[in-house]
Amino acid sequence: xxxxxLVGLPGSGKSTVGRSLARRLNLPFSDSDHAIEQRLGCSIRxxxxxxxxxxxxxxxxxxxxxxxxxxxxxxxxxxxxVLREANRTLLRGAGHVLYLRSxxxxxxxxxxxxxQRPLLQVIDPQARLRELYEQRDPLYRETAHFVVETGRPxxxxxxxxxxxxxxxAGILPTS
Length: 175
Known about the structure:
Blueprint: E1 3-7, H1 14-25, E2 29-31, H2 32-40, H3 44-51, H4 53-68, E3 74-76, H5 85-94, E4 95-101, H6 104-111, H7 125-143, E5 146-149, H8 155-168
Parallel strand pairs: 1-3, 1-4, 2-3, 4-5
Helix pairs in contact: 1-8, 2-4, 3-4, 4-5, 5-7, 6-7
């Protein structure tokens, strides 16, 4: 099995589901946003405000390339990782990409109290989530080998749904 790469909008559950999935598969877990913050020595939000999105995307691209060049793992990507074609190609070639798809309404329910996500620090975060969804959903679909509808299931249920899709595709042995 190759690495498993999780893509999706902010709040879709990439990190939470990814950690659980990694435990179940006995694989290391990496979160590209965490790796970026380690490299930067500050929060993504601070860097974003100071240097801008374009510079952040340059660093993100370097970190993603480093993470997928190593051992097999479960990798949670940042919500905007698919914005660059080079990242979409890299991720799709590096492993099995799973798009954790959530509607903007579902994401708003999960994120309405979150003050740490730079792209949501706007006057109308719900409208921003709808914009992000419209812009990124086609890119996530282009990158992904599998689409998992997140809806409202618990994390263990989502992990089981992912494992079942991987088993049905012959990527994992059936249990």
